[in-house]
Hints:
- This protein is of the alpha+beta class.
- The chain contains two helices and two strands; from the N terminus they run βαβα.
- The protein has helices spanning 20-27, 49-52; strands at 6-12, 34-40.
- A two-stranded parallel ribbon has the order 1-2.
- Helix 1 (20-27) links the parallel strand 1 and strand 2.
- The radius of gyration is 12 Å and the shape is flat.
- The N and C termini lie close together (11 Å).
- The relative contact order is 0.32.
Amino acid sequence: MGQGQKIGYARVSSKTQNVDRQIKELNEYSWDKIYIDIDIASGRNFERPEYQK
Length: 53
């Protein structure tokens, strides 16, 4: 990631849930570039692939 770039993170607990609302909220910030990482995993701990990135 270059300087000034932002990373967004969205997580849901199961495949039946939808991250669209979270992504919409992240995209409302007026950043030039945003990369959004998504995990479909429990929030019980931080052992989630995209969170670890």
